Amino acid sequence: MTTAPVEAIRVDPALIDMMDAVLGAYRTTHAPTGTVDRDAQLWRQLDELGLVRLTGPEHCGGSDAGWYEAAELLTATVRHGARIPLAEHDLLACWLLEASGSRCDSAVRTVCLLDDHGAARDVPWASGADRIAVIWQRGGQHHVADVGVESLQITPGVNMIGEPRDVVIADSGALRGVPLEAAVVEQLRLKSALVRAVQVCAALDEILQLCIEHASSRIQFGRPLSRFQAVQNMIADIAAQASLARSATDAALTVAVTSSWSGPNLGFLVAVARSCVGHAASVVVRHAHQVHGAIGTTREHRLHEFTRPALVWRGEFGSVQHWDARVTDAALQAGGTGLWNLITG
């Protein structure tokens, strides 16, 4: 199997327009706040449009779409500043439960993996969920159960941009679930990592557009900022880094979809995407704030709506250092003769 070209990714433009219309209307009436809670009204509206279970099978109430469509939805939520657990609910928790033979109802879900002490930390959106797909290990075998939040001990917390990242504690000895194959658990890890890569790429794209608009309209010393070579160089670096991150993420997504998440080099490509995204975020954020100057540090300007999330999301579901190490280990294991096959599949 060879890596499919990024151009192979196609989504119905009408669907993208609908996503933008709904989320754009939400953005005009909801200014960003310090702490983020799931907006119940927006959730109901997205549910009525079939976007909450976008990738779910039709016989379970889903829209039977795929990851390309889901990536566009995630991108639209970032573009319009809508913080809502669509990925955690649809792409992770509900997918996992259905993969284990369960069916999902209309309850809002997220997912967590308990450690040996029955705790999971930094669980996204647990405090705003109705049920949690809880994974634990017993006797060397992973299990999963769909657990109501009333049966769990949840300590609310937030990440640096105010999104819920909570501590979940459960009595794993009292949980009753079904066995999970190791391949499914690994697939969950890769899907979680790719979700954040898609979100960071969306933020980087918006940062680039803001920089272009600012440099074109801002007059300094009698001419637009875009006429200064130093500014041109910084924006060129931003564009290059955002494009690299997007290309690496799209390459991983394409192989994931075309191989049904079983490509032999998928883990490597996801690691490459997360590594590229993580390093790109550093360059893009630094240059973007230099381009904008003092105005870019104000709450009133939209720049922080994308720079701060980019820096936060790049470290979730694995740090930059973690994914760098995954890339390095895979490359060393492949050796000089096997590296090209690792890249191309």
UniProtKB/TrEMBL annotation:
Region forming the signal peptide: none
Coiled-coil portions: none
InterPro entries found in the cross-reference section: AcylCo_DH-like_C, AcylCo_DH/oxidase_C, AcylCoA_DH/ox_N, AcylCoA_DH/ox_N_sf, AcylCoA_DH/oxidase_NM_dom_sf
Keywords: FAD, Flavoprotein, Oxidoreductase
Sequence ranges assigned to domain Acyl-CoA dehydrogenase/oxidase N-terminal in this UniProt record: 34-102
Domain Acyl-CoA dehydrogenase/oxidase C-terminal, chain residue ranges per copy: 195-314
Organism superkingdom: Bacteria
UniProt KW Oxidoreductase keyword: yes
Cofactors that this protein relies on: FAD
Molecular function per GO: acyl-CoA dehydrogenase activity; flavin adenine dinucleotide binding
Family as reported in the entry's similarity comment: Belongs to the acyl-CoA dehydrogenase family.
Protein name: Acyl-CoA dehydrogenase
